[in-house]
Amino acid sequence: MNKTLIIIQREYLTRVRKTSFIVMTFLGPVLFAAMLVLPAWFATIEDEEVKHIAVFDESFEFIETIPETAKFKFTYVFPGDDEEYARDYIDGFKKILGETDYFAFMYIPEYIASLQNSIEFYSYKQAPANLTMHIANAIEKEIETKKLKTFNIENLDDILHSVKTRIGIRSYKLSEGGAIKESHSFLNMVVAYVSAFMIYLFIFLFGAQVMRGVIEEKTNRIVEVIVSSVKPFQLLAGKVVGVALTGLTQFLAWVLLTLIIVLAAKSILLPDFTEEAIQQANQLQVVGSLAGDHIQQSEASAKALEAFNMLQSINFSVMIGCFLFFFIGGYLLYGSLFAAIGSAVGTEAGTQQFMLPITIPLIIAIMVMANVMQNPDGPLAFWFSIIPLTSPVVMMARVPFGVPFGEIALSMVLLVLAFIGAIWLSAKIYRTGILLYGKKITYRELWKWIRY
Predict the structure, then answer these.
(1) Partner of 326 for a Cys bridge, out of 159, 238, 248, 392, CB 3.0 to 4.6 A?
(2) Strands, DSSP E only, in 71-168?
(3) Neighbouring-strand partners of residue 173
(4) Average pLDDT of 374-393?
(5) Predicted TM-score (pTM) of this structure
(6) Residue 344 to residues 11, 352, 437: CA-CA distances in angstroms?
(7) What residue ranges define each of the domains in the chain, with the CATH number in brackets?
C-alpha cells in the first residue's frame, strides 16, 4: 500500500508542477468567468455615436412617425425637385451621404403595405440590428393603426393601448414531499449541457494522459526498473489515482477561482444591476417600438440581473457533488481502460484499433444528451443514466432537471461496481502487456491475457 501511495504522489506532483497545468489552472477560470460576465456587460455598453438617418418617404404617409431616440435621429428629405431625378433616388442618396454627415439613407416606397421587404436602407457601414428593428416596428405599428382606422372604431388608440398585453410563464416543480421550487428550463438545459460535456472532455483529457504516460514509460524501458520493486497492479492503481487527483485539484481550483472572478466582475462591471433597474425598465416601456438607448440599457441590465438570479436558483452543492462523483467514477472507469490499452501497445499509433470500442459509449452518450435535455425523465434518459459506460455524461445532463435520489444512488453503485470490474480487467492486461515489446497485439491475444 505504501508503494502505491508513493506512485500516486509521484504522478500527482509531476503533473501539478508542470507549467501547462499551472497556466491552465489560472487561465481556465478567466475564460469561464468571461463567458458568464462579458455578454451581460457588453449588453450594457452604450454606443456613443449619434446616427442621423435621411428618410425619403415616397408615400408621404410615414413622415415624423418613426420615434427618435438619444442615438437615432431621422430627417425626412427629397432627393430633388425634378421628377426624373426623384425616381433615381439612389443617385440622390449618394449625393446626400457624400455632402452631409448622415449615417444612412432610407427609401420608403409608395405602396409599402402591399410589398414585402420593400423598405430599402443604404449605408456605407453595417446597419445596427436594433436600428433596423426600431424602424420596422414603428412602421409596422403605423400601418396596423391605419388599417384599423378604416373600420371607423371610436377611441381606437385607447382600445389598442388597453388590449396590449405581455404574458410570461413561470415554471415550478413539485417534489414528492410537497415542496415547490421554481425551475428555469433554458438555464437547466445550459447547465446540463456544460456539465455533461465537461465530464466527457475531462474523461478523454485525463484518460489520454494515463495512456500516454504508460506508453512513454514502456517505450523508455523505465517500467522494467519500476516493476522490479512494485507489483503491476500497484503501478496501475497509482497512475490512475494520481492523475485523478490532478484532475480533481484543477477542477476545484477552477470552481473556486471562477466564483471569485464572477462575483468581483459583477460588482465592478455591472454595478447597476438592482431591482430598481428592473422597475425602471418596466416603467419606461413604450408600446410598439424601442424608445431610446436608456430603455435598452435598463432592459439589458434587468435581463442580466435576472440571469444572475436564475444562477442562484441552482443547487450548486448537489451539482458540484454529483459532478465530482461522476467525474471521478467515470475517469477511474475509463482511465483504467486507457491504461490497459497503453500497456498493450508500444506506440500511440498502435492504440487506434483499441480506442474505438472504448470511445463509442462516450460518443453515444453525447448523442443521447440532446434527447435527455428535452425529456429528462424518459426511458431513454433513465437507462443511459444507469448504464455505467454512459452514466457519467447522461446522469450529469439529468441532474439539473431534478432526479430522484434512488436513481442517482443506483447509478452511483453501478458505476463503482463497473470501475472495480474495469480495474480488475485492466490489471490482467497490464501485468502481461507492460513488459511485452515488438509484438502486434490482437483482441484474441488480449482475451488470452484476461483468462490467464
Answers:
(1) 392
(2) 72-76, 104-108, 120-123
(3) 181
(4) 90
(5) 0.63
(6) 20, 12, 9
(7) 2-40+184-451 (no CATH), 51-161 (3.40.190.10)
